[in-house]
Every structure is written in C-alpha cells, then in structure tokens.
User: What shape does this take?
Amino acid sequence: METSSSLVDRALAAADRRAGELLPALRRWVEVNSYTGNVDGCNRVADLLIESFALPGLTHERVPGNGCGDHVIWRTPAWASAPERRVILVGHHDTVFPPGTFEVWEESGDRLRGPGVLDMKGGLATIRTALAALADEGVLADLPLAVVTVADEETGSSESRTMLEELARGARAALVFESGRATDALVTQRKGTGKVQVNVTGKAAHAGNNLKDGINAVWAMARFVDGAQQLTDWDKGVTVNVGLMTGGTSANTVPEHASCQIDFRYVRQLDGVELMAAFDRLARGLAAESGARFAITGGIKRAPLERSDASLALMRRYEACALAEGLAGGEAPLQGGGSDANTVSAVGVPAIDALGPRGKGFHTHDEYIELPTLGQRTRALVRFLSGWLEPA
Assistant: This one.
C-alpha cells in the first residue's frame, strides 16, 4: 500500500477538487432545524448525513435515539481488521436553537453566519470532504476508522454515552470536531460536569399557632445551599453553582418542601467523586440537626477530558498537519464546558478537540465561521489520516 508523500499530495489534490461540495452540503444540513428536542429535525439531518457520507469504503449504522434523534456510525473494513490502530472521528448534529429562534444562512465576505455552522455542522462538513478525498484515491477502506455523530450532545449525551464508550474503547486516538477556536488552539483539557437536584422534606405547621411543631424545609435547604457553595475550590478548578431554588407555599406556613438544582465542574475525575460524597455528607449532617429529610438525585454527567502524554503527542501530530495548511497551533487553556471528547477520554482513549473550522459565537445568534478555514481544516485532516495509513 502506498504510504509515501505522493499519497498525501494526491489526496490533497482530491480534497481541492471536492472543495466545492463543502458549502452546499453544509447549507443543506444547517437549513434543517436540529434543536436537540426537535427529534424529527435531527432525524432529517441524519438522513442527509447518511446520503452525503455514502462513500466507497464506508458502511453506516443508524442507532435509534431514545427520546432524542437517531445517532449514526460509519466504519471502514479496516476498523474490524486492524483494531490495534483504530481512530475515531466524533461529532454531533443537534444544535441549541429551538425552531423559529435562529434560522439564517448569511454569507458576508469570508464569514458565514448560521445555526450550527460552528457548533458543529461545519466540523462534519470537513470530515465528510476529507473522507471523500481519501475514497477518491482508493485508500479510505484501508483506514481503521469510525465516524460517529450523535443527536444529544447539547444536552450532555446522556442517551448516547454508552454507545460512544463501547465504540471508542480500545481505539488509539479520537479526534473531536467541535467549534474551532478563534486562535486555532487545540483543546486537550475540559472540565467534567455534573448536575444534582436536592429535595428537602420538612413538616408543615401554622407559623402563628404552632411554629414549634414545624420543620422548615426552606431553612434546611438554605443551610445546604450555603455549604454546597463553599465546596468551590478555585485552586483545584472545582466550581459549584446553585442555580435554582424553590420552596414554601405561603409566608405564614412552615414550608414542608424545598428543592434546588446544582451545576458543578471539576478538573480531575477524583474531584467529581469527592464532590458527590461531600454533598451526601452535608445532607446527612443537616438532616440530623434539623429533622428534615434530604434526597439527592443526579450526579456526574461527563467525566473530565484530562490531558495526558498520549493526548499531547496526538495534539502535536495533528498540529503539524494544521500548521502545514496555514492554520495556527498551540494548546487551548482548560475549557469549562464538556463535550464528547470527555466521554471517549474517560475510557482511556487519547482525545483532542476543537478541530472544526475557526469561528466565534457558538450558542448565540452571532454564531459564525471563517469560510477559508473550512478548506484548511479539511486538508489538515487529509494530511493526518494519510499519515495514519503508515505502519505503526
């Protein structure tokens, strides 16, 4: 099998011939609303993706979503025959924009504005075009490659997580095509995320006639909230935010019920485990003091993407390809938000993220990409995957 620089040159030329397909494909996907909760819209985008990724050397599997849109996996024959060199490309086709809230396709100079152009249908367009170029050169089937796009990433990939873990386990590398940073820096670290709901049950009583007989759930919850907020540790990168709190029925009634919702973030997997244990200890102590009953539900949603020697080496390997295409390089600072890179990393796969086109404004109505970087990211991926064909 050819593995010389001539293959890279021919594959890059093929990518250039395919470059005209980038925007039409991306436009078809962007103009279908695929808000996570819009299951029909997500499934229509999945249909279009399956059509666009119908390439020699790829077979697809459509995995039905449970309460969300369908997920899609593509594999090459070499995925089964060369498991020791597997590489997985990861994306998602859902967005954060409900129908009717942000539905534009606006080209202005070198900028393209629209829902999902950056987060992250633009990344899917670069994957598809790079693979099409490799298929044109007859080498795609020889890559031990899987591509996966999920329909629930924007809500934490809770439904697709098990599928992602099973697919990724044992792979040598994972490339995740989330929003490219404005500086082209590559993401090697993301905080883990978690969410818990705390429900407190006290005892109702009339505030004027028999206050002493009541157990004030709001007061117990207020003490819990204060303790939980104090678990934030800036030095460790651990943050706790009580973002919602409710309770009580009237001013002259001892409140029987109260609840709160907590978002927490952390850098090391151990820190997430310790946070959950701290919430439990806090609740038990307050229950003993107040007589109220505490119930905690939820927990860790995503393990952290932790930087390792292997992920740093993977970053350097991809970075060389990006630099060759005129993109910048470097390592992004720790990211507070999670992605599917967290999920695949948690099963021991070296992962890097933010390989989509350059842009800004994801999750806002100002979301845009810089159009030239669509082609640059495509060519960088062609370089990377062509090099992956070389013997270990």
